[in-house]
Design brief:
Blueprint lengths: L17 H24 L9 H13 L3 E6 L2 H4 L16 E7 L9 E6 L19 E3 L2 E3 L3 H20 L2 E3 L3 E6 L7 H8 L7 E3 L7 E5 L1 E10 L14 H23 L14 E8 L9 E10 L5 H16 L11 E9 L2 E2 L4 H15 L5 E4 L5 H7 L4 E3 L4 E2 L7 E3 H19 L1 E3 L1
Parallel strand pairs: 3-7, 3-8, 8-16, 9-15
Antiparallel strand pairs: 1-2, 2-7, 4-5, 5-18, 6-19, 9-14, 10-12, 10-13, 11-12, 17-18
């Protein structure tokens, strides 16, 4: 963000000495903040197992006196909403938790602070250097699945609000602190908050961004290739058709589509500066029934990125056309077309817009803590910000700590950056909502 973009007119001045008191409050509570983060990250909240995390978040919010809204998500209520992606697993226990701070008289701007508590699977445990759900601090880093993505960010938002109270200040605006699920697979947790009516003048999601402002992000489509073969005894393999091998034939074709899309990305006003922003990944493969039988079936679950501005329907059509074209060159698939099934993310890309006021406030808070200008980042992954900015006219962006090994082994988040981000969040809340003596 250039200096001429930062107009101090959007930043509500803090009372004398407030900044120093806020930062001192973060420092004083930081040991407890990390203890809370460790307890939160120790809960193995993989898909459909997020309940204990939501229990903990509801308790933390109630202890602080917030209004707590804790509800079961009804997927049927969301199916007609823009950005919906289908969930195929058990969704009967899916919950959203929102804590609301409401001033006696609301005179300041309102804010949504949102974090997700769902985490991706760990993979083979013996390939981790430290058990993924026994978080540990070593050499200034907190290790553990979800420590970076993004439980430390959610707890940072909670403790940023604590710091304001400890500094003797109360926000003048309404604040919703939201703990959602399904961020890693559909985004239905965030969508459920919007369906329930939660809105604000801005939304900040403290996803790990290495201390940068997420300016734009790609969209994501999940799909499944359902491939059929002709089973025979392996001794006569040449007379059958191997569905697993046929699936690889289709995967190679989609890699060609991936390359074509990345060529198009070279002219995009943001992503032209990013090397290979659109990534295709065959992430799960299942097939066959017997090692000595040529497999009659193979399912491959895939993910591919798309650029902001591209429509889901047009990209789906290109994927289907690519698969059909490849199938026609295969001796068995030509007469036994594979099926493309849409599951999970059906999410367009997103560019932050109409957020100049909130960005200005964040830039001022960042400079006060980090001592330099806030930089932009272009994200080749996906976040929940898209729902707010694209479909509900709520300016939304991400800003968070430094993390390494997201979705991989030995995930970790840098504690010094967590502390600085917490201070920045607290100053942002104060500058955006305004504060008064508690």
């Amino acid at each position: 963000m250039s200096a001429d973009q930062v107009s101090q007119s959007n930043v509500i001045p803090l009372p004398a000495g407030a900044r120093e008191r806020i930062e001192a409050a973060v420092d004083a509570a930081f040991e407890q903040q990390i203890a809370t983060t460790i307890a939160f990250a120790a809960i193995p909240s993989t898909r459909s197992q997020e309940g204990p995390c939501q229990d903990m978040m509801a308790r933390l919010l109630r202890e602080r006196g917030y209004e707590v809204d804790d509800w079961i998500i009804n997927q049927d209520d969301l199916k007609a909403l823009p950005g919906y992606g289908p969930v195929e697993t058990d969704f009967s226990r899916a919950r959203t938790v929102v804590g609301t701070y409401r001033p006696a008289q609301e005179t300041g701007r309102s804010l949504i602070l949102q974090g997700h508590c769902d985490v991706v699977p760990t993979g083979p445990l013996d390939m981790w250097q430290r058990p993924p759900f026994r978080p540990v601090v070593e050499d200034g880093w907190l290790y553990g699945r979800g420590a970076g993505d993004m439980k430390s960010g959610t707890i940072a938002a909670l403790y940023a609000l604590d710091a304001l109270k400890a500094a003797g200040l109360a926000p003048k605006g309404r604040i919703h602190l939201q703990s959602v699920i399904e961020e890693e697979s559909t985004g239905l947790g965030a969508l459920s908050t919007l369906h329930r009516g939660y809105r604000a003048d801005a939304c900040l999601i403290p996803e790990p961004t290495n201390g940068k402002l997420m300016r734009a992000q790609v969209g994501v489509i999940w799909f499944r290739l359902k491939v059929r073969g002709l089973p025979v005894h392996v001794s006569q393999a040449g007379t059958g058709s191997n569905a697993i091998k046929a699936a690889y034939h289709l995967i190679q074709a989609i890699e060609g589509l991936e390359a074509e899309w990345n060529e198009r990305a070279k002219s995009h006003h943001f992503f032209k500066t990013v090397n290979h922003p659109l990534n295709f990944n065959p992430g799960i493969i299942k097939g066959g029934d017997w090692a000595s039988s040529v497999p009659a079936w193979c399912d491959v679950d895939c993910r591919i990125g798309i650029l902001p501005g591209w429509t889901i329907a047009e990209c789906q059509a290109e994927i289907v056309a690519c698969v059909e074209k490849a199938a026609k060159t295969h001796p068995f698939l030509a007469d036994n077309m594979p099926e493309v099934v849409w599951s999970g993310f059906l999410s367009p890309g997103y560019e932050v817009s109409a957020a100049q006021e909130s960005e200005t406030v964040l830039a001022a808070a960042y400079e006060a803590v980090f001592g330099g200008p806030l930089e932009d980042a272009y994200f080749t992954g996906l976040t929940d910000t898209r729902f707010y900015g694209l479909d509900y006219d709520v300016p939304a962006f991400c800003f968070g700590a430094r993390m390494e090994n997201a979705h991989g082994f030995n995930e970790r988040v840098e504690l010094e950056s967590v502390k600085k981000v917490t201070k920045t969040l607290a100053l942002f809340i104060a500058g955006w909502c305004g504060v008064e003596p508690a």
